[in-house]
Queue: 2 jobs
Job 1
Amino acid sequence: DAGVTQSPTHLIKTRGQQVTLRCSPISGHKSVSWYQQVLGQGPQFIFQYYEKEERGRGNFPDRFSARQFPNYSSELNVNALLLGDSALYLCASSPGRSSGANVLTFGAGSRLTVL
Amino acid sequence: LAKTTQPISMDSYEGQEVNITCSHNNIATNDYITWYQQFPSQGPRFIIQGYKTKVTNEVASLFIPADRKSSTLSLPRVSLSDTAVYYCLVGDNGANNLFFGTGTRLTVIP
């Protein structure tokens, strides 16, 4: 079975540009989350989507947006890129909202470098 | 959103048992405790999850005292390939907005 797949794996952009990152969850998983991981730090929560609706948003500026498609894949968009947006962007999927236990399966990430 | 506190780093020799303790004083009634492992340039990987007492799987054990304000991840007989960052997370009910913190960097020495 395919795990969580993300594309592209690496990309380089310049300040002010826009970027779109893509994620395909594990088959049957309805929830997708996005995390930003800056070098040397733990992942920081950006968004969660469940059944195509936004269920959570972290402390990120409006330059960050996302959406989830009917097939549960997701895109993360970042506009007006800043040098500080350089990071590993991780997508994680899970079966969905439950009463307690919540295990995320992460993709390998998209490494974004902003010059 | 419950936060966690872990040691920043630990060193261990190959073949030893490693115990990493995590504090989570503000854990809520419905929260589960989950540990992830992360290698450089990879996404975190699920290790183990528990609610109370002890949980064991093929790679680790998780000990949770009755007050649930802390937990201990136990890795039996570590090898060089266990060198990684280990994150302790306390999850809100069904939410994905987990707080990872900085984790514990485990270095296994030959």
Note: Chain B has no helices and nine strands.
Job 2
Amino acid sequence: AQTVTQSQPEMSVQEAETVTLSCTYDTSESNYYLFWYKQPPSRQMILVIRQEAYKQQNATENRFSVNFQKAAKSFSLKISDSQLGDTAMYFCAFSANDYKLSFGAGTTVTVRA
Amino acid sequence: GAVVSQHPSWVICKSGTSVKIECRSLDFQATTMFWYRQFPKQSLMLMATSNEGSKATYEQGVEKDKFLINHASLTLSTLTVTSAHPEDSSFYICSAPNGRAYNEQFFGPGTRLTVL
């Protein structure tokens, strides 16, 4: 079974600053995918970024980037130039061949004006 | 991108009654859908995998007689909470794989169930 650990329940960041969310996972799978999802107050799950385990290059989507350390089983998310609209709960998630998603406990990010 | 809808978005029912929640993939076919339960400020907990044309697969600890899942077609899965009790009050979310690479899934907007 896969486990996903997010050790930061809450993070606060000033608008325009940078915040990094940590995530570690445990798996015996060799091929898998990692995701960061955002859940704003509307509770709609929104995909922020994804990473294929076989790719060494870290994924980037505009202001969002990841630091994927496969050997350490670490998958952190960096939000640059934070905006008020980034305020949400962020979930790290793991998926292998069966499409099932295993989620971390989540990190609540609050962006201060 | 692909869209997944859920109906209703919010339902209140009396204890002992049954409630049905629908999950539809609007512009793609989904042979598999997933149902999650989420308590306030907590993570999503996978309840079951809904399979078109076969029985649902339930996660450990989830009562299959309590949470009935039917995958009626390639675009519709339903979750029925039977004999609901206040402890069943929660936010229920469905998702469907996009059928392409990356194991990406599309999520419905969720259904808030309140059992009085």
Note: The mean pLDDT of chain B is 93.
